[in-house]
């Protein structure tokens, strides 16, 4: 993706469409550090959403790390809602019963 006024790359968006159920899954979305804090994440998501609506897609899905507050803010401000939680358990300490 690039900024309209400079044509410099400001980030990237990696996604996969599912044309059967008309959904898209975002695998990775990143605005480079030098371009963060300018609203480009929200602008990019809005433009992507408009593009997908024109293609008759119905839903955008993604996963975001629970500790990635900045990304969660961008997604929530763009209308995304929490639909589940990821969970993990470290099993490197084999001597415990927990």
3D architecture notes:
There is one protein chain. This protein has 98 residues and is an alpha+beta fold. The chain has a domain at 11-77: Aminopeptidase (3-Layer(aba) Sandwich). The chain is built from 2 helices and 3 strands; from the N terminus they run E-E-H-E-H. It has helices at residues 40-54, 69-77, and strands at residues 11-18, 23-31, 59-62. The chain has a 3-stranded mixed beta sheet with strand order 1-2-3, with helices on one face. Strand 2 (23-31), helix 1 and strand 3 (59-62) form a beta-alpha-beta unit. The mean pLDDT is 90.
Q: Summarize the biggest pleated sheet.
A: 3 strands, mixed
Alpha-beta content class? alpha+beta
Q: Would you list the SSEs in sequence order as H and E?
A: EEHEH
Q: Mean pLDDT, nearest integer? A: 90
State the helical fraction.
10-25%
The side-by-side strand order for the widest beta sheet comes to: 1-2-3
The number of distinct helices, counting runs of at least 4 residues, comes to 2
Low-confidence stretches: none
Strands, count: 3
Shape: globular
CATH superfamily of the domain at 11-77: Gcn5-related N-acetyltransferase (GNAT)
The percent range for strand residues is: 15-25%
Classify the fold: give the CATH topology of the domain at 11-77.
Answer: Aminopeptidase
N/C terminus separation: 46 Å
């Amino acid at each position: 993706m690039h900024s309209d006024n400079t044509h410099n790359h400001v980030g990237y968006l990696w996604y996969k469409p599912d044309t059967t159920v008309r959904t898209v899954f975002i695998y990775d979305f990143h605005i480079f550090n030098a371009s963060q804090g300018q609203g480009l994440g929200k602008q990019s998501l809005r433009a992507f959403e408009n593009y997908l609506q024109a293609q008759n897609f119905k839903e955008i899905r993604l996963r975001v790390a629970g500790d990635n507050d900045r990304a969660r803010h961008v997604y929530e401000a763009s209308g995304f809602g929490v639909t589940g939680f990821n969970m993990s358990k470290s099993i490197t300490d084999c001597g415990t019963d927990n």
